[in-house]
Design brief:
single chain; 458 residues; alpha/beta; 14-stranded parallel beta sheet; eleven-stranded parallel beta sheet; 8 helices; elongated
Length: 458
């Protein structure tokens, strides 16, 4: 089978997006459209991926990452899709198969593209078409009486009879590079747009007796292109619905599948339950019997089995153990690791800290840059004072420590195993094991004190 070269067309301006951001960099599921196309292209193991770019220039190049390296080809001026592919031909070997993709059609599937490549590998042209109920604005596929493909006609150039056809061109095609390189210089621009249409090579293939085989995508949404914010929002919903369908098919319970947003990858073990308005970003893994409460944000985190995340909790770049309870209204920040059985309660923030098994901070506390042992109780209003105005310092709390409410721990400081800190205490020196530490306090009383009364207005 010939090696594969992929050309991605991404030069369009996207005027209807009404945005300074290049069209192909607008995101679906949190990932720029062009990056999604590059990802599926690389999944096909091509020898080369060339991106034809124009509008957005270096902004587009800087925003796209690759595992295999990309060839960037600038199209200037933009004279149509045929002209765009022609710019990439010097970078593609004549012995290869060339597959054409589009930077603004982000959900095209790997299996669908493989079908086109297999057709082209046999010397023919593989063309992706689709049948739609409303073909307005799209190129129509023209067939002869036997059903053989004859041409593709753009809507502006179509007759009324041709406009009634519901089979449309998606633009995706694969063919031997030698044939493509021969046809592209022969394209003309005598059409309503004055552009060099890539679709005109279909007629050239037919004229040479080369078989054109059409294929349809498994899902119609695979070939939806984006030209406006309205279309972007519609495709986002379709993408999220597909995510929800896949999760429920694997056994995940979604209390409302229309109110889940995945902007990355979510992997769930069995018997996971997800409530409404949950946002997933980056790579998230949920263990067995995990429960995620409403309005929760999960980003790049690993959550162990049996853990309950209560509503309005934010977890970012953290590792959460088994049978942990977090929230509601908790914030777990990057570089945090919570061991099994930890409880983090309402309005508690944990940052860059490790908390040992069975420890609890149930109310209104800040734990930053800390190492906390097992079976520690941290009272309401406790904070680790980890920043001196220039540098961060670490707090170390041993096993079995009890910290009362409204305590300030001024780092660097160590609270040794079994120590008790009384309520309202400020700690700035290390605390010995099994000791009680309080600050000296006085309590004064004024007998028969008269509380002020509110003055009446004249």
């Amino acid at each position: 089978m010939p090696s594969l070269a992929i050309v991605i067309l991404a030069a369009g301006q996207g005027k209807r997006m009404k945005s300074a951001l290049p069209k192909v960099l607008h995101a679906i599921g949190g990932i720029p459209m062009l990056q999604r196309v590059v990802n599926v292209a690389e999944a096909l193991s091509p020898d080369k991926v060339a991106i034809v770019y124009g509008h957005g220039g270096e902004t587009v190049r800087a925003a796209v990452s690759s595992n295999t390296g990309l060839v960037w080809v600038k199209q200037e001026p933009q004279l149509g899709t045929g002209h765009a592919v022609l710019q990439a031909m010097p970078y593609v070997a004549q012995t290869q198969t060339t597959l054409i993709l589009y930077g603004d059609v982000p959900l095209i599937g790997e299996a669908t593209l493989n079908n086109l490549v297999e057709i082209a590998a046999q010397g023919g042209v593989g063309w992706l078409t689709n049948v739609v109920s409303n073909p307005e604005g799209l190129g129509r596929v023209i067939r002869d009486a036997s059903g053989a493909v004859m041409a593709i006609v753009e809507e502006r150039d179509a007759t009324p009879a041709q406009r009634a056809i519901c089979e449309i061109n998606t633009g995706f095609l694969a063919c031997p590079t030698a044939s493509l390189a021969r046809w592209l210089p022969m394209l003309g621009n005598r059409n309503a747009q004055g552009e060099y249409y890539l679709t005109d090579i279909l007629g050239m293939a037919v004229a040479e007796g080369i078989k054109v085989t059409t294929h349809t995508p498994k899902h119609s949404w695979e070939v939806i292109g984006i030209n406006s914010k309205d279309q972007l929002a519609s495709l986002e919903r379709l993408y999220q619905q597909e995510n929800a369908r896949r999760l429920m098919a694997s056994g995940v319970t979604l209390l409302d599948p229309t109110r889940l947003d995945i902007r990355g990858e979510l992997v769930c073990e069995t018997d996971v339950t997800v409530d409404v308005n949950v946002l997933v970003e980056g790579q998230v893994w949920l263990g067995r019997n995990v429960s995620i409460g409403a309005n929760t944000v999960l980003k790049n985190c690993h959550i162990g089995e049996g853990t309950t995340i209560l509503p309005f909790t934010h977890i970012d770049s953290a590792i959460i153990g088994a049978n942990v309870r977090i929230g509601p209204y908790a914030r777990i920040r990057p570089d945090t690791k919570l061991a099994d059985g930890v409880h983090i309660g309402n309005f508690v923030e944990v940052k860059a800290s490790q908390i040992g098994a069975g420890s609890k901070a149930n109310h209104l506390s800040y734990i930053g840059d800390s190492t906390v042992g097992s079976s520690v109780n941290i009272g309401a209003g406790t904070i680790t004072c980890n920043y001196d105005g220039a540098n961060k310092h670490r707090t170390v709390i041993g096993d079995n420590v009890h910290i009362g409410s409204d305590v300030q721990l001024i780092a660097p400081v160590t609270i040794n195993t079994g120590a008790t800190i009384g309520a309202g205490t400020t700690i700035w020196k290390d605390v010995a094991a099994a000791s009680l530490t309080v600050n000296p306090k006085t309590q004064a009383a004024t007998p028969n004190w008269q509380r002020p009364t509110k003055k009446t207005k004249n």
